[in-house]
Amino acid sequence: MDKVTHVILTGGVGSRLWPLSRKSRPKQYLPIFGGKSLFEMTSDRNQPFATNVIVVGSKDNCHLSKEILEHCSVNYLDIVEAVPRNTAAAIAFAAFASQPEDILIITPSDHIIEDEDKYLEAINEAVAKAGQGYIVTFGVHPTKPETGYGYIEHNADEVLSFREKPNQVTAQEFIDRGNFLWNSGMFCFKASVLLDELKLYQPEVYEKSLVAWQQAVDGRLDEALSMEIPSISIDYAVMERSKKIKVVPALFRWSDLGSFDSVYDYLKKMGHPIDESGNMVIGTDNYTAFLGLENTIFVSTSNANLILHKENSQEVKNIYSQLEKANSSLLQ
């Protein structure tokens, strides 16, 4: 296998997992998955084939990444963003920090991936395509009409279109058509290929990211220079415009654990207790009884509790937004 660098993006705050996920410890650092955090599981999963690790994170959470990686036998580089400028800039920084021919595997830090033999098969296929000059995205075969994910319309490894997060009816149509994949937010490419495409389609993002990177000190980016970078996702900047895109239709089981319904499903599978009506308690060992309720999740923390029906998991971000507008300390 070619030289491969694993790039871990850690900028998310996990708003749909409040009150577990806070700005001081976002969901990817919560050790609630068999005693490990999602960040640690992500790092472990990619060690067998990654020569180096680059972590692109914020000044608020870089110390959390460092605590974990210092106990792992990996060579890693921290890139610390002064302010978040979305994934196009974050990925550009990692590419600038690499050699042109290095193959980068970009993953978020907060995913659960099972069937790791199939994951390795998908990685090998993506690395081979990246070596041929393609930008590869990983699409996951959907198991339900999920409204919290974007979708990729495909024919074999050809991408026909990218679709935004759909409503329930559209998501079911995607499932019925049979040629749609969940957009996992994972990518693979040569550093030089991605930068060439970014320069072609988003020259301002490229140029201002380069200036910020050149002025960085020990991987720490300057805030004023960073604020000049347009905030745009890699999907909008490159993936939806480039002619070099391929998709690997992956067979591994995947979840971004981005909402409490997905956390519920995962914890249930791992043996976390639920009562006879499908109710679950997360965050406390105190005796909790549910009367007249089904498929309800009770989330307990030291200073905030959340009670929600499993089907309303996507709406937790609305509570987070309200607290953010009120500048509430409950987000810290």
Task: Explain the layout of strands and helices.
Layout: E1 4-9, H1 38-46, E2 52-58, H2 62-69, E3 75-81, H3 86-96, E4 103-108, E5 112-113, H4 116-131, E6 135-140, E7 151-155, E8 158-163, H5 168-177, E9 180-190, H6 191-201, H7 203-214, H8 223-227, H9 234-239, E10 245-250, E11 254-255, H10 260-269, E12 280-282, E13 296-300, E14 305-309, H11 316-325
Parallel strand pairs: 1-2, 1-4, 2-3, 6-10, 12-13
Antiparallel strand pairs: 4-9, 5-11, 6-9, 7-8, 7-9, 13-14
Helix pairs in contact: 3-6, 3-7, 6-7
Question: How would you describe this protein?
Answer:
The protein has helices at 38-46, 62-69, 86-96, 116-131, 168-177, 191-201, 203-214, 223-227, 234-239, 260-269, 316-325; strands spanning 4-9, 52-58, 75-81, 103-108, 112-113, 135-140, 151-155, 158-163, 180-190, 245-250, 254-255, 280-282, 296-300, 305-309. It has 332 residues and is an alpha/beta fold. The protein has 2 domains: 4-255, Spore Coat Polysaccharide Biosynthesis Protein SpsA, Chain A; 260-331, no CATH class. Strands 1, 2, 3, 4, 6, 7, 8, 9 and 10 form a 9-stranded mixed beta sheet that branches. Helix 6 (191-201) crosses helix 7 (203-214). The longest helix is centred in the middle third of the chain and has 16 residues, at 116-131. The chain starts with a strand and ends in a 7-residue tail after the last helix. 42% of the residues are buried. The model has no long low-confidence stretch (mean pLDDT 92).
